[in-house]
Each structure stands twice: as C-alpha cells, then as structure tokens.
Amino acid sequence: MNILAIETSCDETAIAILSCEGDAESATYTILGNALISQIDVHQEFGGVFPAVAKREHAKNLVPILLGTLSEADMLKESEQRVSQTVHEEVTRILSREFELSKELFSKISVLAIPNIDVIAVTAGPGLAPALWVGVSFAKALSILWNKPIVGVNHMEGHLLTALAKKGGRSIKTYTVSNVSMPVLALLISGGHTELQLMSTWLSYNLEGQTRDDAVGEAYDKVARMLGLPYPGGPEISRLAERARDRGGNSPYTFPRPMISDAHSDFSFSGLKTSVLYSIRGKVLSDTDKENISLAFEDAVAEVLYVKTKRALLKTGAKTIAIGGGVSANKNIRDYFGNRLSREHPEVSLTTPTPELSGDNAIMIGIAGYYRARNAEFADTETLQANGNLAL
Fold it and tell me: Which residue, 241, 325, 312, 247, is CA-closest to 276?
C-alpha cells in the first residue's frame, strides 16, 4: 500500500510517500519520497509559533514540497487528462479560503498524471487549528482530484507508533515495527503535550497521566526566554546543560520536582518554571550561570518524567516504554530513562524514535495512516474536520 502523508499541525510543512506492507504486529515502511520545510526562522521574531503566520507558510509550501516528494518517488509525470468541471468546482469550493493554494494546485498539480498512491493520510489534530485546516483542506482537494480515499490521523498517535519504529537492515529509507511487547506505556512529550498513554492492544489507548499546566516542551521554551536564549528554547537549554555536565555536572542551583511524591501520574511544570524565575530575578547572569541553571532545570525535568512514568509502569505492568514527541530527542532524558530502567526494571524495553523522526514529520503520519487504512477507517471529505484539541 502506497500512502501519501501530509503534516501541518504546527510549524513544519511536511509531505512523504511511503510504501507499506505487513500487519499491526509486523509492518515495514519504505520511504519513497520525503520533504519538510521548517518555519523556525520565520517564527523566531515572535519568540514562538504565531498561528496566522504558520497557516500562511503552510499554504505557500504545500505545492512545492508535494512536487519535490513526487519527484523523489519517481511519480512526477505529466498527463493530458483534463480535470472535469465538476471536480474543478468541488476542489475550488474546498480551497475557497486558500485562493493562492487553489491557484497553484490547478496550475501545477492538476496537469500531472495521478500518482501511484492508494491512500492520502493527513494530520487532523491536535495542533494549531489554522495550520491543521490548511493541510486537511489540501488533502481533501487531492482526494477529490485524484479520486483517492483519505484517512485523518491523530498527530500524537503518529508520535507513539513512530517511537516503536526501527531502521530496517541496511536501508536508510526503511523502518520496521515488529516484536513489540504489549502493553506499551507511551510517554508523549512535546511543546504542547505531556501525557502517558497505555496501549494494551494495537490502537487502543487509555490515558494514565497528563500535565495539569505547562507541557514539558513549553516549559523548556519559557525558561529559555528567561535566560535570553533564542527560540526554540529546548535545544538551547540542552546545549548549555551539556556544557555544565562536561565540567563535572555540579550545579549550585536546585529546583523542585513538582508533585513527584503524589500518588498519581499527572505532571506539573509551572512551579518548576516559576522557581527558575525567582532564582534569576534581579541578577545579571554569566554564561556559566546560564549553563548551571540549564543543568539543574533539565535534571529536574528528567527526574519528574521518569518517576511519574515509573508509577504508571508499576500500575499497568507495561512491558515496553516508548518515548515519543519532539522532546524525545533530548539526550539527557533518553540517557536518564535508559540508565534507571536498566537498573530498576531490566525486564522492560525502552524504545525511542530515531532522531530524524522525533520532531514533527510526515513519515509518522504515514505510519499511523497505514494502521488506520488497514482497518478501512476512511474519512468522508465532507465531514473530515481539523480539531486542535483532538485526543487519543
């Protein structure tokens, strides 16, 4: 099954084409084409993602990266077939709020032969609603133009399933999901989410814990702003913390571990963020100060994440812990979990996405889309909606 996947949930515009085969227990994904444009440089002046700007950039980027992806997959071929008046009117209606995108689609995409794809998968949520709607509308338009079925994908399910994927053999373009020991306890950590999901059977989820205030990635970005670091703040905090570790890893700062002793698996990072604010108020910080603060903050985050995950692990009896989402790329969090689990729960497997799949990307949407397409969970182009608060 060939799947064209579209991701526009936040500030990355991404499209991929995957060749997928196998069942839920053992599946192989070969990347035929993949393109991504990040908007980080555009949003840096705002110190975070500005939804209206993200929407505009997605609309500008979708057609160019679709052409690039089709070209990489050797599916970029011209056609003499004309678009019928009925299809033209329907696509125009769907993209009525995206005039430039509609114009580009008809001038550059409608003149192409229908590519060898079986399903279109698109992120339906969660995320920034204006950004999501651009991707969903574009997917609907392609679905009608090419007469292909469509599946709406939960962004967090994409992160979860991609955390189970491993590079397959010698091919750098093949990933496999196999030999997964159930139940899976997934820690999903990103700029907008911090949650623990239990997957006892494939695609069946139970929420075991979530943040009660800030998401962990959001806390990283806010602390980075306090320290005068550029957006996105997470990588900058980690870079400074690593410098402090290279000096011996001793910081004069100590920050609280919010709710770490409470008998539940919910998270809170607001108090930790406030503690950092109070510790620096009125001070002129040296580079060493910033490195030590970053180290103490990152160590507090890692311990909170681990202790809460361990509490859910003991409750659920999970056999696999999967860490997914953009913050899963954090080296200290990966190392902290790996070291403590190997000592305390060597019987539990730990899995994380490959670095290139930890952030938002279309490959993860294709992987999740394949699972849903195998179950024939196709969406109606009339009723498919973008939902910024979509839950698993």
Answer: 241
Judge if 36 and 135 occupy the same domain: yes
Q: Is residue 263 located within the same domain as residue 332? A: yes
Predicted confidence (pLDDT) per residue in 33-81, tens digit: 999 998 777 766 666 787 888 899 999 999 999 999 999 999 999 987 7
User: Per the domain annotation, does 175 fall within a domain?
Assistant: no
The whole domain housing 254 covers 181-352
pTM of the model: 0.95
β strands within the chain, DSSP E? 2-7, 12-23, 26-38, 119-125, 150-154, 166-167, 174-178, 184-189, 194-201, 204-210, 320-324, 349-351
| DSSP code at position 41 | H
For 140-191, the pLDDT digits (tens) are: 999 999 999 999 999 999 999 999 999 876 667 999 999 999 999 999 999 8
331 and 368 both lie in a single domain: no
Mark whether 93 and 212 lie in a shared domain.
Answer: no
- Spell out the long-range contacts of 200-205 with Cβ–Cβ below 8 A and sequence spacing 24 or more: 202/24, 202/25, 202/371, 203/24, 203/157, 203/371, 203/372, 203/375, 205/392
Task: Give, in degrees to the nearest 5, the angle at Cα 258 between 253 and 262.
Answer: 140
Residues 213 and 282 both lie in one domain: yes
Amino acid at 71: S
Q: Are both 348 and 362 inside the same structural domain?
A: no
* Sign for the pseudo-dihedral over CA of 374, 375, 378, 379: negative
> How many angstroms from the chain centroid is the CA of residue 302?
20
In a domain, 167, yes or no: no
332 and 370: one domain?
Answer: no
When divided into structural domains, the chain yields a total of 2
* 106 lies in the same domain as 255: no
Domain assignment of residue 82, yes or no? yes
- Residue 332: burial class (beta carbons within 10 Å; 0-12, 13-18, 19+): middle
User: What's the CA gap between 274 and 327, in Å, rounded?
Assistant: 20
Query: What pLDDT score was predicted for residue 172?
Result: 73
Percentage, residues of the chain above pLDDT 90: 87
Q: What is the DSSP letter of 327?
A: G
